[in-house]
Automatic annotation (TrEMBL):
PROSITE patterns found in the cross-reference section: SF4_HELICASE (PS51199)
Annotated GO biological process: DNA replication
UniProt-listed SUPFAM superfamilies: DNA primase core, P-loop containing nucleoside triphosphate hydrolases, Zinc beta-ribbon
Protein name: AAA family ATPase
Length: 610
């Protein structure tokens, strides 16, 4: 196994060598070239490593060293993981003697709100010969000094040499490990001042990463220790709307990772800023409020709004017995309507569409078989009802239903903004039409506020479609319909044929992919019943996802069919349906009558007075 380039290795090596780096795009510039050290004139920023490709180059013409990061690592004794055990890497052994805490360190940290007590507890000091350089010793859980980080406090030095650098060839671990007790919660910050701030505030087990927000090799060296914790709270820097360290730690650690909530940063960048501006309680609250970073697409069940299922909005079917069993068509549901050829599925579908219109819902019909004027004619007849239909006889002496023009006009006006039809009479055997059908449905939902989509009948059209993945296409189509239904809170009724032509139909008899009935919420089966004198057709509920109630065998819903109006109504009720357009007309007439009687009374009163 070869070496796989890791940005964290480049950053780690840079810190080990010198620590003063600058990043421009993907190029990481070292302050001095590790090969030529900037030559006699100490040229700066002539050496860079590309963080994406790993190539390095010194731009000083007299040096001009170039190559790959792997070579750089080899030349400077930085061990890379080539597949062999990384634990074999050799680090510098640091002197394990007591550290003298120097006053300038105490004083400087006080300016950041860190008390002398905390500074001494964590053995923060300055360099012996240069008091402007702070020294942060990193001890492991066994109190062994393994890593040292330096921080320039003099502004000029920061400008010339950068802010932080590390002791060469030391093992990167977390700062503050030696103060951790137990393995309940570990709070990780990006900088030592931040973890000291947390310690100052009394937050237990507060640590900081060794080489900034991009170096994660330290995890290799403390893996067994860190994975013992039950949870990690990431209190990184809040930069550009993100919390540093979070993504990487979340990806790498196999334990629960929480993050400080954005709002608990109170508009500040890091823990020390929060502490200096808002005090101890703000820090404690931030840590306590830390939340598990939500897994995409998963939410708490308790966050889901409780709904009264009986009060959920739905479209009533107009068939009372059916509504009693399935509750009506709930928004978000896909209803499959099956039945043998020519039994009356389209007729029933048209009426269900009309019922939705009557309840004020906009509907879209897709008919793959019937011409648009047929769909319209059937729906108009159903809307008009038997009492408003004239029957004439054609040349074969067959009855032909027709609606008087003024009534037709009223019906048209009534459903103008509520009834839409897909403008395609014959479905081509071209799969792109399926896509366009879905797109058209979606656009119609958005533009016309469609709440019911009736698809009649896709299966027949798809039967004719060539291609091996025919079943998969059907299944995918139904899946997409269900997605649309849920996304837009609409109802879809899909007509499908059964495989059987005789005997009773069950869910498994719906032709096409077996997935279809799995994907839908309700399966209805309609069949004519011509041999029976009491009714003309029956409707069975074969699947009902919401409540599970079905029509028991032999207790199917009995329906009457009128050839004159194409209406289908319950055999149990003799009331004829009056749709909105006619209701409106009746109301107007009633109002007119009321008005007339009012005028009469008023007239009589007036005559009395006169
Ligand atoms: N009992 C009945 N119920 C419903 N429609 C009936 C009944 N008896 C006769 N019809 C009439 O039968 C004809 C065929 O019905 P429809 O087209 O609705 O059936 P379908 O099941 O959709 O047919 P296909 O399987 O070909 O799509 C229509 O003119 C319809 O009005």
């Amino acid at each position: 196994m070869g070496y796989e380039l890791k940005q964290s290795d480049i950053l780690d090596l840079a810190h080990t060598l010198d620590g003063r780096t600058r990043q421009k795009g993907d190029e990481l510039f070292f302050q001095y070239c590790p090969y030529c050290h900037g030559g006699q004139s100490r040229d700066k920023n002539t050496f860079s490593v590309n963080l994406q490709t790993g190539t390095f180059h010194c731009f000083r013409s007299s040096c001009g060293r170039s190559g790959h990061f792997v070579e750089l690592a080899r030349d400077f004794g930085y061990q890379l993981d080539f597949g062999e055990n990384w634990r074999e890497k050799k680090f510098k052994r640091l002197p394990q003697k007591e550290i003298t805490v120097r006053d300038p360190a105490v004083e400087w940290l006080k300016t950041r709100g860190i008390s002398e007590e905390t500074t001494r507890l964590y053995h923060i000091t300055t360099r012996k010969k240069d008091k402007s350089v702070l020294v942060f010793p990193f001890y492991n859980e066994n109190h062994v000094l393994e890593f040292v980080k330096y921080r320039n406090t003099d502004p000029q030095r920061i400008k010339d040499h950068g802010k932080e650098f590390c002791e060469k060839d030391t093992k990167p671990i977390l700062f503050g490990m030696d103060h951790c007790q137990g393995f309940e919660r570990l709070v990780i910050t990006e900088g030592q001042i931040d973890s000291l701030t947390l310690a100052e505030c009394g937050v237990k087990n507060a640590v900081s990463v060794p080489t900034g927000c991009k170096g994660f090799t330290f995890l290799n060296y403390i893996w067994d220790w860190i994975t013992k914790f039950s949870e990690v709270v990431v209190f990184g820097d809040h930069e550009n709307g993100r919390i540093t360290l979070l993504d990487e730690l979340q990806r790498k650690l196999p334990i629960k990772v929480k993050a400080v909530r954005e709002e608990d940063y109170l508009g500040e960048k890091d823990a020390n800023d929060i502490y200096q501006k808002y005090g101890r309680q703000a820090i404690l609250t931030a840590v306590e409020n830390a939340q598990v970073v939500p897994v995409k697409c998963v939410k708490r069940l308790s966050d889901v709004k409780s709904v009264d299922l009986s009060a959920l909005p739905k479209i009533r079917t107009g068939l009372q017995e059916l509504d009693q069993i399935i509750g009506g068509f709930y928004f978000g549901q896909v209803i499959l309507l099956t039945g043998r050829r020519g039994e009356g599925k389209s007729t029933l579908l048209s009426q269900l569409d009309l019922e939705a219109i009557d309840q004020g819902y906009a509907t879209l019909i897709y008919s793959g078989e019937l011409a648009d004027y047929h769909v319209k004619n059937w729906m108009d007849l159903q809307a008009a009802g038997p009492d408003n239909i004239q029957v004439n006889y054609d040349e074969n002496n067959q009855p032909v239903s027709s609606i008087p023009a003024d009534m037709l006009h009223k019906i048209n006006e009534w459903y103008t903004d509520l009834a839409y039809i897909y403008d395609n009479n014959i479905l081509n055997d071209d799969s792109s039409e399926l896509e366009s059908l879905l797109d058209t449905i979606e656009a119609s939902i958005q533009r016309y506020d469609i709440k019911l989509i009736c698809i009649d009948n896709l299966m027949t059209a798809m039967d004719a479609m060539p291609g091996e993945d025919f079943y998969q296409a059907q299944s995918q189509f139904v899946k997409q319909l269900k997605k649309l239904a849920v996304k837009y809170d609409v109802v879809v009724i899909l007509v499908a044929h059964p495989r059987k032509t005789k005997e009773a139909i069950s869910n498994d008899d719906v032709s096409g992919s077996s997935d279809i009935t799995n994907r839908v919420d309700v399966v209805l089966s309609y069949s004519r019943d011509e041999n029976n004198s009491g009714w003309d057709g029956t409707l069975s509920v074969l699947k009902n996802r919401l409540t599970g109630k079905l029509t028991p065998k032999g207790q199917e819903i009995k329906l009457l069919y009128s050839g004159k109006s194409k209406r289908i109504r319950p055999a149990s009720s003799d009331k004829g349906k009056v749709y909105g357009w006619e209701m409106k007309e009746r109301m107007q007439l009633m109002n007119l009558d009321n008005m007339k009687s009012f005028h009469m009374e008023e007239w009589e009163d007036l005559t009395d007075e006169l």
